[in-house]
Design brief:
mainly alpha; 2 domains; 7 helices; transmembrane helix; transmembrane
Length: 179
Amino acid sequence: MKEERTKTIVNEIRYWKQNRLLPTEYCDFLLALYTQGESQDGHENQYTNSSYGYLFYLWLALSLFLIPLSFLVIYFTEMGIIMQTGLLSSFVAVEWIHVNWLKYKESDWLLIPLTVVILVFLLASITLVQYFYGSGWSLYITLTLNCTLWVVVGRVCRVQALFYSGILGTILLFIYIVL
């Protein structure tokens, strides 16, 4: 009888977690408490022991490869600014789709593609501003807007590292401008 009752409670907690009736941390704690630290559903890690896991990690590696590839496109090719901007925009779009997919899946790996998106977007926006307006106040405004975007995206996606990076970037930029 006690085992059946525990199973009912565990199923109810999983329902709460799936439908976000309680925060994930609370549900994980309660599940660990009632299952005595053992996973009964066999879903310890959704990215291991499958071809899906291999593709998932390959996609993350390719995401990280986009950062040096973006620098290569900007600084070491003879492409026109329209071609460079189009290529960097496609990188940002593909990675943003990846970010939204990982956010939908509630993955712990959200930070990697999100970092790639913001860094490639930063590179693209700085390149465009320098091409059309040169350095100076327009560059500072662009950097401030990027840092503000980091704060907003960090708050929306609940990524504290991004939120604090945006705040720190804004503070350092203002210190640089003043000094």
